[in-house]
Amino acid sequence: GCDKQFFNASVQYSNMDLLVDYINKHSDEFGVTVQYATVGDYFQAIYSRNLTWEIRDSRDFLPYSTEPFQAWTGFYTSRSTLKGIARRASSLLSAGESFFTQYVQKHPSGSVCKCKALKQLQSLRWAVSEVQHHDGITGTESPKVTDMYLNNLMSGMFNVKNLMASIIFDMSTAKKNGEVYSSVYPKDSEVHSCHTLLPFETKKSLAQNIDGELNYMTSMSRICVIERCIALCVNVQVQSSVESQSTYDLYILVAISGLSYRKYSVKPLDGEQSTFIGRSIKYNRRDVTRANQQSRQLFPVVNNCYQVLFDPNTNLMHSITERETNQTVQLTQEFLEYHVNGDTEKGPISDNYLFAPNASAVQVSKAVGLEVVSGKLVTEIRQFFYSNVTSQDYKYAVYTRMYTVPEGYDGKLLCHRIEQEYSVGPLELNREAILRTSTNLNTKQLLYTDNNGYQMQKRPFKAYVNNTVARNYYPMVQTAYIEDDTTRLMLLAERAHGVSSQGNGQVEVMLHRRLWNNLEWDVSNNLTLNDSSVVRPVIWLILGTKAATNVLYRTSGLALEHRPVVMFGALPADKPKQPRQLQQNSVQDSSVTVPPNLHLQTLSIPGWKYSSSHAEQLRSIHMGKQKQGDPDFSRVLLRIRHLYEVGEDPVMSQPVMVDLKSLLKGLGSLMTVEERSLTGTWDVNTLKQWKWRTAQYPSKGFFNSTKASENFLVTVHPKEIRTFFVYFQSQ
Questions:
Q1: Where are the beta strands (DSSP E) in 461-505?
Q2: pTM above 0.85?
Q3: Mind spelling out the 3-state secondary structure of 259-295?
Q4: What are the EC numbers (predicted)?
Q5: Contacts of 610 (CB under 8 A, 6+ apart)
Q6: Which of the chain's ends, N or C, has fewer CB atoms near its CB within 10 Å?
Q7: Is the distance from CB of 275 to CB of 221 less than 8 angstroms?
Q8: Residues 324 and 398 placed together within one structural domain of the fold
Q9: Which of 510, 535, 562 is the last residue of a domain?
Q10: What CATH number is attached to the domain comprising 500?
Q11: 375 located within any domain
Q12: Mean pLDDT, residues 694-717
């Protein structure tokens, strides 16, 4: 790998120059010449060989195995906390980029310094890019390098939050010495008791109209949340918090248009006013090893989409019924641990990279506690897993939430997801923790997972002579599912995990790892993953027919990844608008919404000076004319992605025609559109894409990319990403 050999590039090139010169001077003897080459040079050489290529049916090369007991499937889960923060940071960057772009276009004379704003965005751009290193987000670095990544991510997130706060202040004509209280994680934010209004704003970075919920801790049980533009209380629920007896969980239902924001105020109630408080029922802890299966009396938890049955004899989930089709799936969940070896003298070891279990996973809890908190917006089922009936502390917990959406809201996505948050750890040494979900679906051990969060891959179970368990693990970047002929169970995750199907109707997700071994390489580089943290990953479950889940899961995945950004602060007490004035809100006027099978992936102001002609840009660099000038704030980078694959859904998989001028009218009058290559580097009109010879398509040649028409209409085909530079009329 030579991963760490290139800190000093000039030394490397000086040494390679000597080798290149020597080989080329003896080319007759060696039969070869050597030159420095770009990736383009490499592919040109391959293309000119005129070979016929095999098609792999969209299959990737995973999992990697370097030896019979060295399956590189552990890094899918290593350093789960870093994986989660990296995903959150990427989402926040998207929100910050779009918010700044909207601000520059709608408020060109605003008081926020654009150059400083660009530097704040660049700090998070750098951190998010840096952690994508193959020894970064994979969790295969030493603890001090992990800390560096985390510090850079947190610093960049802080900078972008500050930028967004500055924009809010300027757009709200707030006092410049006002304060904004913000937190990277919603769970870390607390609404404190106050005698005046505590305003907060929620910003949506997703260009789709999706209603959702916010969840925060508060010290008040009697509370009102007011949407400031209509001066009305919105739907909220307060319930006892599992974190502390002195705090409450506050749930708020919000409806926000694409790429827009809303203002809310929190105020304590007095007099006879009251807030709906969730009702809690606690069940006795149950010994799951002695459960009486004969006297089973199940109890239901129901919303408009699902009925989930729980077994009071075990306090475990029993089944889920999808109410529209009345299809019931037997479904149970349990935590297990794989025990692994830490001594190289005794056999294969697990480490940051490798997963090598000693045997099948073993059950970790013999007793389960249960509490059900019922409310008008959400019902939360809290399960606590103990090593035995008398244990004082639990090591595992599941918080399952089912949402009930009042009339007047589009609750399709909220209703159709069963949200689960897990608490796992701290683990004992050389343990790998999984959540196994077992169903009565006849899946034939066939699993589907996404590749790079982009394309679904079929993962059939394969029997091997050695290390079968580990070699049937695959990465779930966000999505995995199992299915039979009629029904599909989907899992959507807010961070990457390893996932496998070790039995018919089963899917297991690796949630956490804690390892130590005496392998010399691991010890010398501190790569033993002695991670004693507690992790809190979130997974959404969606159950239904294949057709129904096809429609739901793409948009649900976006909603999970791009949750609203919430900013607390002391804002001026604006005079509340009357309800009839709501549609005149400038925030709504600048909203950007795409069809449900598209995703507005990028809306940003890159800032870099760059010629639209890539050849001219290269000449400037080669001639030393590339200078660090003032940033360019006139160019906006736009990417639109089709969410669906060909044939995945009869409606959603159709090409979509988009009128860019209409789509972006909330930002200003669109004047010019340049279609670019994916990176923005090339004008697509100058590109000739290679057509490769295969057995199915024996001819080869070139074809030109499609381009935006002069009337700003573009067509986006399944799984296509189209990239543009767009320019607006100066204001």
A1: 474-476, 479-483, 487-493, 497-500
A2: yes
A3: CCEEEEEEEECCCCCCCCECEEEEEEEEEHHHCCCCC
A4: 3.2.1.24
A5: 617, 632, 635, 680
A6: N
A7: yes
A8: yes
A9: 562
A10: 2.70.98.30
A11: yes
A12: 73
